[in-house]
Amino acid sequence: MDGMHKAPSGLPRKAGVSYKPRYLEDMLVSPGPVSWVEIHAENYMVDGGPGIAGLRRVVERFPVSCHGVGLSIGSEGPLDAEHLDRLAHLASWLQPASVSEHLAWSGHGGAYFADLLPLPYDEATLRRVCDHMDEVQERLGRSILLENPANYLGFSYSSMAEVEFLAAIAVHTGCGLLLDINNVHVSAVNGACDAEAYLDAFPLALVGEIHLAGHEAETDEHGGPLLIDAHNNPVADPVWALFARLLARSGPLPVLIEWDNDLPEWPVLAAEAARADTMLVGCYA
Amino acid sequence: MPDWQGTFAGALLDPARHPPPGLVRPDGCAAGRRFDIYRNNVVVALIEALGEAFPVVRAVVGAQFFEAMAGVYVRAHPPSSPRMMFYGESFAPFLEGFEPAAQLTYLPDVARLEYARRLAYHAADDRAADPAVLAGLDEAKLTAVRLSLQAACHILRSAHPIHAIWRYNATEDKSPVQPAAEDVLVSRPDNRVLVQRLPPGGATFLLALQEGRSLGQAAAQAVAEAPSFDLGANLASAFSARIVTAISIQ
After folding, report:
1. Which residue of A has its CA nearest to B126?
2. C-alpha angle with apex A61: A58 to A65, nearest 5 degrees?
3. Of A85, A157, A184, A256, which one has the greatest count of Cβ atoms within 10 A?
4. Is residue A3 predicted with pLDDT exceeding 50?
5. CA-to-CA distance for B22 and A154, rounded, in angstroms?
6. Where is B72: in which H helix or E strand?
7. For a pLDDT cut of 70, what percent of chain B falls above it?
């Protein structure tokens, strides 16, 4: 692949999907517009078995994005060195086009909560996150992408806006950013920000990957709208609209259809990727 | 804000505890019940993960009972690692002390069988050894042979019909479950997890091999337990299940 056509991440500026073992044969036989895949790193931190065997076939065919969900980069305590070693081992044989993690914490005191928990955007958190990012990137011997979270809560003592906070981490650590547009929309509806203003302020030169995903619409205790970042639905119209707005400014970027729960049949997922791909192609027109 | 994450974490799993101060809605308004979203996400995700790992336990007690029981477990024993495929290691011992399910005395062993299947699925890829090298050995050499078993191999002994309970709930075979003590071999030949019932003495034989005993010692232990133990038949089925990965001849 020509370096000119790659984003800061090394992924092609085309459509990808979340890889699940059930899609393996379909993906190999009729990939359609799918040019790359993303895996959850933790699912492959095992000694062997059918999961690893399937992934080895995927890697032969597609560029892979290795997306961690459990490193807990925002933890107050030290990083889990054993877990970082496992990520380094996976990355060493997988040779992924990109490695990414989240601006979040997910464990404390030896317990792991299988969720991405929120952080205050203040100086103390910035220092800690930067230290952890330095440690991760040094251990992996490469820069990684950090993803913006979906917010249900904020902190009264936050002193920076989220975009400002992410940009500061990138400046201090040399990491790239993974821009999840569904998360921006979810956070905006849940009261965090104006989604368009957020995207307009986002430092596009640092973006190595875009996430598009589905969410679940609920109601809060006051009858107001509340969105949950559930990854269990097609991408919603407002998210497609925000994606179009971003593309007009950014040009084509690697874009992932992220679908993790209530998985659809392959053609449904491939159709979502086709829609994203068509919009990317439109950038060249 | 000293250890606010500790306070946050404690309140996630215990509705009686308060979240840390300073939480607001992302727009700065009062947080209201927003913290409950995280409480709910965490507990629901962990209960789901447990249900995927223990589908037969879930089927035996029913979805509603399982959810309540798993809710107690996940709050008391959250995962200790982001490798969620290994979550539930202490579920079987938890079930032993879980009063509302006390009359289902077989349940902990069924959970052990399901967890063993999980471990087997993700175990290292081992190549099966070729039994042909045993053919030319005289009896003295044969009894001194040591066999290594694949990493995916788990041998379970139960006073309950755990194989039949598993088979009834996890496969198409709906023949009735008869009361019996059952020993089970979980293995992974050809990348598929296999659950087999072992004959009398079979578990003792395989466990002895796993501990590094010679073929002769393992067979003697098996015969002492079950006089009907047939070494040839047990050896043949071990090789056909492809669980022997190395043969060392003294």
Report:
1. A48
2. 60
3. A184
4. no
5. 8
6. helix B63-76
7. 100
Beta carbon pairs, A and B, within 8 Å: 143
pLDDT, average across residues B193-206: 97
Cα atoms in the Cβ-side hemisphere of radius 13 Å centred on A61: 19
Q: How far apart (Å, rounded) are the C-alpha atoms in residues B223 and A219? A: 67
Q: Are A1 and A12 in contact (CB under 8 A)?
A: yes
> Residue A7 has what pLDDT?
56
Give pTM, 2 decimals: 0.94
Q: What is the C-alpha end-to-end distance of chain B, expressed in Å? A: 65
CB atoms within 10 A of CB B134: 18
Report the mean per-residue pLDDT for chain B. 95
Instruction: Kindly identify which residue of chain B lies nearest to residue A227, measuring between CA atoms.
Output: B37
CB A182 within 8 A of CB A150: yes
Cβ-contact B85, A43 below 8 angstroms:
yes
The answer to whether B5 contacts A47, with C-beta atoms less than 8 Å apart, is no
Contact across the interface for A153 and B25, Cβ inside 8 Å: yes
pLDDT category of residue B1 using cuts at 50, 70 and 90:
low
Which of B25, B41, B82 shows the shortest C-beta gap to A191? B25
